[in-house]
Amino acid sequence: MARTPEPPVETVAVEYEEILIIPGEATEIEGSDTGSRAKRRRPSSGVERGGSSNRALIGLGLAAATAGAAFFFARKAGENQNGHYTGPRISDAPDHVLRGKAKEQSANNQDGRALVGRTVTIGKPRQELYAVWREFTRFPEFMDNVRQIEKLDDTRSRWTIEAPMGATVQVVTRIVEDVPGETIAWVSEPESQIETDGRVEFADAPPGRGTYVRLLLRYKPPAGALGRAVAKVMQREPNVQARRDLRRFKQLMETGEIPVNASPSGRKSESPTEARI
Amino acid sequence: MRALTWHGRHDVRVETVPDPEIVNPRDCILKITSTAICGSDLHLYDGYIPTLRAGDVLGHEFMGEVVEVGSKSTLKKGQRVVVPFTISCGDCFFCKKQQFSACDNSNPAETSDASETLMGHAMGAAFGYAHLTGGYAGGQAEYVRVPFSDVGPIVIPDQLEDEKVLFLSDILPTGWMAAENADIEPGDTVAVWGCGPVGLFAIQSAFIMGAHRVIAIDHYPRRLQLAKQMGADVLDYREVEVLEALKEMTGGIGPDAVIDCVGMESHGMAIDNIVDTVKAHTFLATERPHALRQAIIACRKGGRVSIPGVYGGFADKFPLGQVMEKGLTIKTGQTHMQRYLKPLLELIREDKVDTTFLISHREPLEKAAEMYRHWHDEQDTYTKIVLKPEMAKPRTEARQPELATA
To answer: Any chain B CB within 8 A of the CB of A259?
Structure first.
């Protein structure tokens, strides 16, 4: 049983379907490190405060309950130090696609919605995909906002992430869960300029079809101008952003390169060697 | 380099744009020797395809000489190649299943969102055909960048001249797949709507595949003449009641297979088509599917419907009940080009398929804008236009196809 000590000021979580903003609300986590799913109860005041749109946001905020969020908050609360993941697995139906009764049951189970990213199928064995991902250094090739990754040791790496107006932010991440061929999860270290966590899961697709890959990314910027600016960028089209990152990873792994439409046009502003969107 | 760029509805221009460059290891750069204007370019010209941007270089039927290769291209400088209009990676699930036009990787991540929303899944990429399909520059230009050049282009033997093989880039395989999708059996009568280039190749292909009889439907006399030259019986829908004629000509049974080579911009003055035209122009509809409706009504019970014609969205008043009650099979799709290139090149070498009979005009690239106008306005005279960047002087006299006597 654990309690988060203070309410997050502003949480921007990036996943495939929605963006989460949790305006100052207290969060309570019930979790267990023995394999049961982490549970989190939100004080009712959080719900009462907002109107329906606010409530929707808070509802989305509940997505932080499980999956990546589980270890995110658990880590903050000093729990789950072994980094053991207790949320939904790739074989579960992603929570954002559940409807009606299924959603209710899911909500009852988890006291919130799972934060689960989209899934792509990549025609390569999962060990191979895992190996590339585990290196981290190739992220800049397929992740839009990641400019550079520097490996500090086997579990820690420094990320340079693009921020608005040419600025960058530095993040040091540490791998908190590492199951070869299955899962890699990482969280940012306290010295980072923004808090972020992510996880990627690999599971066998039907025979001959390669691997299902599911990616989750979240960002939690600090208060302050830069943090807000980063949040704004991350927030702009979070589902698009992450979908594209995963798609590029697929392209890179399957074809050895990332297709780009760079080619001539009659538009003066464009270069024939840069992507045209 | 010089290139044909799109600037708006009925506004295309030949202008100077930067040369393409190698961007990815599997790329190559071609110096275009011949390129054609496709019927589906008219959909762009008429503004029916969303996500085209002012300045985009058009053209998806082209061939040329390899002048530059990336480190992983399997081509060599100096080779002559024809490039299929669809871009395929050769590595994804779809390419490995030979469903090349459904390639999962060729459409860049930045441009695949729109079609994922619109179609449910990201579409494969194509040259010169709007940003829904990747936003790659086309080949109505002096040079073009060809991604995945180890998968798409087919090397052409020196003795085969451009005009014989150029249409491997789109319309010949498309006409061929249209006939293949009609699952032709011995004794079959096949009806083909639209005697444009794809329709004409579909007619030719249907006969090669063993069709007993092909009935072609159009209203342009020259196009009907070309269809007749290919061995088809022809119907001018302005002269006859097509549905009744088809029924009478097939002993009351109806054609065993029907092929819609018209697509989203059907002509004609039928009531449904007038309504569609009004709707399309007021953005209430994306298609004018009159020919397809008629084809479905005409098709015999248990027959096959093949749709090579291009559609982009939601067809209004689609006769689904007729499809269901008659138990029709529908096959359609963008052509899986790489499946057909080698066998069709063989047929061309063996002179078993005639690929030049439909060319009516050969013009320099500089005259491309004017040619679009003619292609749009004078479909009877202009049955197929080939543009040659190297051709110095515009020809004033257009060569007409030699027609067989009726």
So the answer is: yes
Q: From the CA of A55, how many Å to the nearest CA of chain B?
A: 27
Per-residue confidence (pLDDT) for residue A230, from 0 to 100: 64
Nearest CA in chain B to A122: B92
Answer whether A277 sits within 8 Å of B110, measured CB to CB: yes
At B249-267, the pLDDT tens digits run 999 999 999 999 988 766 6
Distance CA B150, CA B81 (A): 11
Domains and CATH numbers, chain B: 2-170+336-388 (3.90.180.10), 171-332 (3.40.50.720)
Q: Please give the share of chain B, as a percent, with pLDDT higher than 70.
A: 90
Query: Which residue's structure tokens are 């530095």?
Result: A170
Amino acid at A89: R
- In contact, A218 and A15? CB cutoff 8 Å: yes
B48's torsion region: left (phi>0), alpha (psi -120 to 50) or beta? alpha
pLDDT, mean of residues B277-291: 63
CATH 3.65.10.10 fits A2-255, yes or no: no
Average pLDDT of span B301-309: 96
pLDDT in tens, A223-264: 566 666 665 665 444 566 678 889 999 999 999 999 999 999
**Ramachandran region of residue B359, left (φ > 0), alpha (ψ -120 to 50) or beta?**
beta
Q: Structural domain boundaries of chain A?
A: 2-255
Report whether B108 contacts A275 (CB < 8 A): yes
Q: Are A259 and B55 inside 8 Å of each other by CB?
A: no
Interface test with B, best of A145, A215, A237, A255 (most B CBs within 10 A): A255
Restricting to A residues 199-228, those with a Cβ less than 8 Å away from any Cβ of B are: 209-210
